[in-house]
Amino acid sequence: QSQCPSSPAIREVTTVRKLISALSVLVLSVLCLVPAVSGAEKLSQTHPDSGHMAVVDDGAGLLDSDELSAVMDEVLSVAEYCDAGFVTYSGFSSSSVLTKARDWGLSTFSGQDFTVFMIDMNTRRLGIFSGGWVYREINTGKANTITDNIYRYASRGDYASCAEEAFREMAEVLRGNRIN
To answer: 48: exposed, middle or buried (C-beta count within 10 Å: 0-12, 13-18, 19+)?
Structure first.
């Protein structure tokens, strides 16, 4: 059995192919990570007077930076009364939007007195969960009224206005005012 002698040109072509292959794998790996990182952002602030937390967790990447700030302003208006959070979710889960909102709130805030508004992009549902004394004010009926009032924004893809209006209405309820 005879072997072809390996020429420098063949070794060079083989080396170039290996480099191209390695670079391709590297580029594809980086590109696969970019969508998971870009767009998803989490902000948190403490209300200056009440000390309650306000958190905006845009895990689904629905908001730009200006929208995140505008939503945070409205979440802070609710944080005057209790811990408050806005979260977007796009992963797969068999849990309901309210279960996910409750679990997120319990893992995010140290106390039981909080309210969370969630947009679940996986199920295309909106949900408000309130815990502790906050539930006496933002109960199931009021939460349903608020989500009914804001659904039109979400159906148009205007998630920032949807969240802002949700927190404006929650703040009105916590101030003792009626919402329709």
So the answer is: exposed
Cα–Cα distances (Å) from 101 to 54, 56, 75, 87, 180, in that order, read: 15, 13, 15, 8, 23
Give yes or no for a contact between 76 and 56, defined as CB atoms under 8 angstroms apart. no
SS (H, E, C) 145-170: HHHHHHHHHHHCCCHHHHHHHHHHHH
What is this structure's pTM? 0.78
pLDDT band for position 17 (cuts 50, 70, 90): low
Q: What is the pLDDT of residues 111-149, one digit of tens each?
A: 889 999 999 999 999 999 999 999 999 999 999 999 999
Q: How far apart are CA 87 and CA 34, in angstroms?
A: 21
Cα separation of 38 and 105, whole Å? 24
Q: Are 130 and 118 in contact (CB under 8 A)?
A: no
* Cβ contact 89:108 at 8 Å: no
